[in-house]
Amino acid sequence: MSGEFVINTLSLGSLYALMALGLVFVYGILKLVNFAYGEYIMVAGYGMYVLGIYTPTPWWATMIIAVLLAALTSYLTELVAFRPVRTKSLNAMLVTSFAVSVLLQNAVLLIVSPRARAVPLPAAFNASVTLFGVTTPLRNILTIITAVVLLAGLTLLMKYTVLGIAMRAAADKFTTTRLMGVQANMVISVAFIISGLLAGVVSIFWVGRSSSVDPLIGAAPLLIAFIATVMGGMNSLMGAVVGGFVYGLLFNVLSITLPASMVNYRDAFMFVIVILFLLFRPEGIIRGSYTEERVG
Amino acid sequence: MRSKRTILDAVLDRSTIVALIAVLVLVAFVMNAFAPPVFVDVYTYLCVSLIMVLGLQMFMGNSGILNWTYVGFVGIGAFVASICSTPAAVKAMGVPNMYPALVEINMPVLPALLIGGFVAAAVAAAVAWPLMRLSDAVGVITLFAALIVIHVIMTQWDNVTNGPRTFFGVPFFTTLWIAVIGACITLVAAHLFRESSLGLRLRASRDDRHAAKAIGINVVAVRYFSFVASSFIAGVGGGLWAHYITSFSPKSFYITEAFLLLTMLVVGGAGSISGAFSGTVIVTVMRELLRQLEGWLNNSGVISFEVYGLTEVSVAILLIVILIWRPGGIIGGSEIRLPFARKK
Questions:
Q1: Phi, psi of B182 (to 5 degrees)
Q2: Stated pTM of the model
Q3: Chain B residues 300-329 with CB within 8 Å of chain A
Q4: What are phi and psi of B310, to 5 degrees?
Q5: Which of residues 35-54 of B touch A (CB under 8 A)?
Q6: Is residue A81 less than 8 Å (CB to CB) from chain B?
């Protein structure tokens, strides 16, 4: 266990935990796997591209606006697409989320370009720092710090505010929560906004890894969030975070230990693990509230 | 007591299917006689899509489980059928790493299509039992994950599929009439399946799986056999598609195509065969028109930039609008009936 491996895994795990958390915020309440989640990340990336290239906005303002843009996109998709189908079948909602994803991807294709665009980021972002005798990009350290701050903030929000308590209650028993006088639309909108905010933050670091953005950039984070939530536990926020770190660890371990000829099959392994989890431990590593989703 | 049935009764009972087949064949005659080759191509493609969508309807429409994996089985059928029917010399050249035993295989297209279907069904039969235990969101994620696993294997196993590169040299086989006949057979099969005891039990499990269990339906088994049957049609449909398009890569059996098939099914109405039929027609026609428009915009220089993705944006908007206004699809869950057919 070298220090480099630890820092890499922690930073990858933090990023994956944030991705998973964004997905599970909506899933917890609506039981909707939001396939459009990756596109919020993409939209934030394009926000940074447009602001960074075409306007003299300072980099910190660019990042804040990008995060807000992702939250706004998330909120708007909820308002326009998900709210009208919410009361219909689960399948209708899932197909809608997929349609939203295709729509956003191709809208960018249509408006900007199918080709990748460079995103300007402050040079310090990719500068190397040496910490505890390990040299690593500053970006990795920033990822860990951001994740810790965000997780702490969200924990406080969920534990001690009325809004947080209402959201946790809604994730447990939505109908009963509504009977208690909590407005369904409000809770769901907030869930989507938080999900979008997290997507925006993820976008900064995800785009930061390659310093470029393309219409399909959201696909990988979506799948990662997917795996992490399933492994950690789809019915608890804690589970998503744990799943993110476990996936980061597993990914790094598989990348190192798998023979070169098998590395290409890594994704297949990951998804076989997902299927096995769903079959044998559908509640994930962290058990959430009771849910009935299996027959036989 | 059942009164004596005449052939006319049998036809009237199946008026939907008879009408759909009549339309399909009639249009084929018209296309064959009068239409330019572009139309014939589009119509052939429509019929092949119809076969795939009907196979998807068999499981998804009747069980209510969103089946992402389906397009993976289409891919398996396409690859198996193509490997069986493509001449050895072409394979040796086009797929340099292929196992020698596979290179030697060569047979006529028709048995190759059936083998494609059987292999797809066999793969489905091997993996589906545990998957069928899951419902709702978890079931959807599992099937989605299964599609990704199939896709990764297809893109990486270059001894069989030529990896992510194009598999070319497949003999052309799917003419207009082959596609129409295939679509007619699939229409009848999907109809018989829907009305069969298995189909009825599957629909019962869709509407209320606890009630279905309570009256003695083995939900997992019913889903399992339907999934395998649906995968068989996927395989044959994939084979027909491969022998129409003649060169393809694993990219053609992934999320974009899964989404397209789902759109065709959901726009018309997943619950009925007439829904699957009309959805396929509407989406195919719309896509073709938009693609023509896109091509015209790009070539004529009316606008100064290249247009990409207009087709997909429009199809996605159509789908969202349909889901908001008519979540059951345009036709909905019950079959359209001809005015003179009596009600059951």
A1: -60, -45
A2: 0.88
A3: 307-310, 312-313, 315-317, 319-320, 323-324, 327
A4: -60, -45
A5: none
A6: yes
In chain B, what are the domain boundaries?
7-252
A105 reaches B (C-beta below 8 A): yes
Tens-place pLDDT, residues B14-35: 778 888 888 889 988 888 888 8
Alpha-carbon gap, residue A127 to B113, rounded angstroms: 57
Q: Supply A51's token pair.
A: 């602001």
Helix (H) or strand (E) holding A212: strand A212-213
pLDDT less than 50: residues of chain B: 1, 342-344
Element (H, E) at A118: strand A117-118
End-to-end Cα separation, chain A, in angstroms:
44
Structural domains in chain A, sorted by start? 3-280 (1.10.3470)
Residues with Cβ within 8 Å of B116's Cβ and at least 6 positions away in sequence, in order, are: B76, B77, B78, B79, B80, B81, B84, B235, B236, B238, B239
H or E element in which residue A226 lies? helix A219-232
The answer to whether the Cα torsion of B259, B261, B264, B269 is positive or negative is negative
pLDDT digits (tens, 9 = 90+) for A137-154: 888 888 899 999 999 998
Token pair 């929560």 in the structure block, residue? A177
Residue with tokens 């191709």: A106
Nearest to B262 among A95, A100, A107 (CB): A95
DSSP count for chain A of H helices, then E strands: 13, 4
Measured distance CA(A211)–CA(A202) in Å, rounded: 13
Composition of chain A by helix, strand, coil, percent to 5 = 75, 5, 20
